[in-house]
UniProtKB/TrEMBL annotation:
Name of this chain's protein: Cell division inhibitor
Highest taxon in the source lineage: Bacteria
UniProt xrefs under InterPro entries: DUF1731, Epimerase_deHydtase, NAD(P)-bd_dom_sf, SDR39U1, START-like_dom_sf
Pfam family of the protein (one): Epimerase
Family annotation (SUPFAM superfamilies): Bet v1-like (SSF55961), NAD(P)-binding Rossmann-fold domains (SSF51735)
Domain NAD-dependent epimerase/dehydratase: 164-376
Stated family: Belongs to the NAD(P)-dependent epimerase/dehydratase family. SDR39U1 subfamily.
DUF1731 domain residues: 412-457
Matching PANTHER family: EPIMERASE FAMILY PROTEIN SDR39U1 (PTHR11092:SF0), SUGAR NUCLEOTIDE EPIMERASE RELATED (PTHR11092)
Amino acid sequence: MSTDVFTLRTPVPVSADALFAWHARPAAFFRLVPPWEQVTPVAVKGPFGNGQTVTVRTPIFGPIQKTWTAELYDVEPGRRFRDRQLHGPFAAWNHTHEMIPDGPDRSTLEDHVEYRVPLGLLGHALGAGGVRHRLSALFAYRHALTESDLRRHAQFHDRPRLRVMITGARGLIGADLSLFLAAGGHEVVRLTRGAVAPSSFDDGTTTVTWNPDAPDPALFEGVDAVVHLAGDSLAAGRWDDAKKARILESRTGPTRRLAEAIAKSGRPKVFVCASAVGFYGDRGDEELDESSRRGTGFLADVCEEWEAATEPAGRAGARVVNTRFGVVLSPKNGALAKQLPAFRAGGGAVLGAGTQWLSWVSIGDVVGALHHALMTEALAGPVNVVTPFPVTNREFGRVLARVLSRPYLLTVPAPALRVLFGEMADSALLASTRVVPRRLAETGFQFDYPRLEDALRFVLGRLN
């Protein structure tokens, strides 16, 4: 049975040594898992180098999963490493990761895979095309992400690495930010409310328990920055009075107490705190930037109080950045994940009139913007974390349906949305908020995916 071969090369704006070092950090392995792949880490045995084994559970067809164990060998620091399948879904698998020097600050990443599908000729006839398509999507994603991450880190190569504490570090944004920073050589401490569960794998971060009702200022000893992302989900449940109280308190209470603890400790010097473009309220077609007045409504009230809760840290001398997130696009969680089942089934629908503006941003650009906020001394106060190109609800659905090759024919009237979701319908689904990222632009931030179709194709593995 012949062996199939897959090869992909991509130029990277760092040296071969830096490219190898990035791959050798534990976080890089987890960083490279595409968001559409339901890969579950099982165990990592040994440090990076010859003989290290990695075991994961990976889907092979629909809900069917298989355990895959790979072993590293032929590791040559600064140049290459290889992995081979010990047991798993392939009849054979050998993968060479090559770092080819192109100068002092340039290199080429080459992934070369030699593999055989199971079941011999029958398996090749039935599955070889699908396997190659899946590998093409996988490695296109991995190479684009590797180039982006290393380019972003290289922009601040002359700055010392930071010790960063993150709350909400297991959430949609926090999980990706933690891995991005750790793979880039920063020290990441995840703050968690509950007991730390033992793990059989090392992702390059550490976890510390904290009490958000009474944060200990001693936590911040040696810490350079805190990124505060924790808060009760907006989308979980109808907005009755009790739910609205939880939304508000989960943001303002812990934020204020965290800011006060930072002020008492004298560290860290940077406090990045989540907020949202809900600050601006329902504003129709008006273009909004960080200088725009606050809007009206429940979300605007929450965001104003949330941002005000960071003031104790600012008064004590910390540089405070209030990141006003738009709708964050990822198939793992959030608004896009909730819409995907309907759109994949051909039931995607316009919400209400469909003319309301949606200010969105890809998960990769959110992570990049948070890194930019950590490293850019000139950035403080409110910062809109949204693409420069918002779209209407109707256009968002049209593009998503096109990316998924599905029809887009339905409409859910506004009254039906209000029956289904109550107050959340007007505040989150029907509100029109057309926001632009003026402060990010002024401080030189570059978006990887400013256009909606490119962003969706990247996070969904539908690259052309």
